[in-house]
Structures are given as C-alpha cells and as structure tokens.
Design brief:
The complex is a heterodimer. Chain A is mainly alpha-helical. Chain A has six helices and no strands. The chains are: A mainly alpha, B mainly alpha.
C-alpha cells in the first residue's frame, strides 16, 4: 500500500506540474490562426520550439508511466478516485503559478467534479 | 459579445474532442495493460514490461487516440484557462457511465449516479465562468485584441 501511495504522489505531482508547464508554453505559443491542418501544423511547429512545452513533456510522460504501473498494481476503482485530488492540486497551481482568476463558481465546480469523479470511479 | 460566444463554442468543441479521444485511448491502454499483467518494480521487470508495452497493438491504438487528445488539449490550452479545461474534461466520466447504461445495459449503483450528477453540475458551474481570465501574451504586440 505504501508503494501505491508513493506512486500516487509521483502521479499527481508529475501530471499537474507537467500540465501547468504545458499550459504556460501553449499560452506563449498563441492559438492557431484557424482549425485547419496547415495552421494546426504551424501551431505544432511553434509549440515544439517552446522550452516550457519541453519541460512539461517529460513530466507528463512520467505521470503516464506511473499511471500504467499503478493500474497494473491496483484496480481502476482505486486509482482514478485517488488521482482525482489532482483537480484540486491543479486548480491551486492555476491560481498561484499561472495567475488565473479562479472565481468562487469555478472552485465550487472543481470541488464537485473532484468528489464526483471519486464517487463514479469507486462504483 | 460575438467573440465571447465564438470562444465558448470553439472551447466546447475542443473539450469534447479531448474527452472522446482520452476515454477511447484510456480504455485501449487498460485493455492492453491487462494483457501484459502486473509490472514488477525491478530493473529487469520494468525493462521487460516496456518491451511488452511497445510491441502490443492495443497499446498503439490507445497511443493514437491519446495523440489526438494531446493535440486538442494543446490547442484548447492555447486560448483557454487550465482551471477551466481540466474540470470540464471530467465530463468524460459522466459520459462513460451513460454509455455503459445505454449500450452495455450495465446497472449503475446510486452512489455512482450521485457522482455523475455532481460531475455534471460541477462542469456546468465551471462552464459558465469565463473560459479565459489571463491576458493575451503580447506576441503580436496588441493586448487589446483579447477584449
């Protein structure tokens, strides 16, 4: 159980850290001119030149691999509810690292989603 | 507020693409990993598991869908807040439950229905906040465009 909790901490830290780094990178990249193949390819090209994007990728890869390992140890009805806490951790990151304006309505929504995901995955 | 409306619609479309790709991808990965079995946490165990993972077809279908997820995720995050996209993406759990009931005729416990309702209310709450609260990065030196 200790190893599962440790791996869970790695999962939550790496997934929120990676997503925050990628969000920062994507904001700096700027949105694609249009949602068509060519502008999307140019958009990807710009994103791949961004350092924050590449800081996020290994973190997300690590979170992905820790998820695979966790899923091979524990049932999905444990893994997903437990990792739902990353919604709360991620929202704190969005507010204090990315400087997003998290309103009361958004906090309430995040809390409901977090509890709801835990209930759904627990069965 | 035509641009505000446009922003909402394109955010919604991208979040839906994200949810569909992520769920199909996850299902394929779960299926592929159950074919591989429990991974022992030793160097040789991890090496062996890695080889089995990259030679498994189901895992690759999962990776294809997760790449689609990644593209829609990157695109939506180029204009929308992380704290908006992340909870909105949880709509997938509610969708999966509904699909399981409609197509697989699964019986769903009351506890799980409560969870589905909480997710839907939560997503609606987040959905009615502004998709973007940070200023546009002055890449084109015209910060007024965001308004």
């Amino acid at each position: 159980m200790t190893r599962a909790i440790l791996m869970l901490a790695v999962l939550v830290f790496c997934s929120t850290g990676g997503e925050i780094a990628i969000t920062h990178g994507m904001k700096a990249t700027g949105e694609p001119a249009r949602l068509r193949p060519k502008p999307l390819l140019e958009f990807l090209g710009r994103a791949f030149c961004n350092g924050w994007f590449w800081a996020g990728v290994p973190l997300m890869a690590l979170s992905f691999y820790s998820l695979l390992v966790l899923l091979s140890w524990e049932p999905i009805s444990f893994v997903i509810p437990a990792s739902a806490m990353s919604y709360v951790v991620g929202t704190f990151g969005a507010k204090y690292i990315l400087g997003e304006d998290v309103s009361v309505a958004r906090w309430a929504g995040v809390a409901l989603v977090c509890a709801g995901v835990a209930l759904v995955a627990a069965g | 507020m035509a641009s505000e409306r446009r922003l909402r619609i394109k955010t919604l479309v991208m979040v839906l693409a994200m949810v569909v790709c992520a769920n199909v991808g996850d299902l394929m990965l779960k299926h592929g990993m159950s074919q591989i079995g429990a991974v022992p946490l030793t160097l040789s165990g991890l090496q062996h598991a890695f080889l089995l993972t990259i030679t498994n077809g189901t895992i690759w279908i999962g990776i294809f869908f997760l790449s689609g997820f990644m593209l829609s995720y990157m695109t939506v995050l180029s204009w929308a807040d992380y704290s908006y996209v992340m909870p909105a993406g949880a709509f997938g759990y509610a969708l999966l439950t509904l699909l399981a009931v409609i197509f697989l005729h699964e019986t769903v416990s009351p506890r799980r229905w409560i969870g589905v309702i909480m997710i839907c209310v939560g997503v609606l709450l987040v959905g009615q906040t502004k998709p973007r609260t940070t200023a546009e990065v002055p890449r084109t030196a015209s910060p007024e465009v965001a308004a």
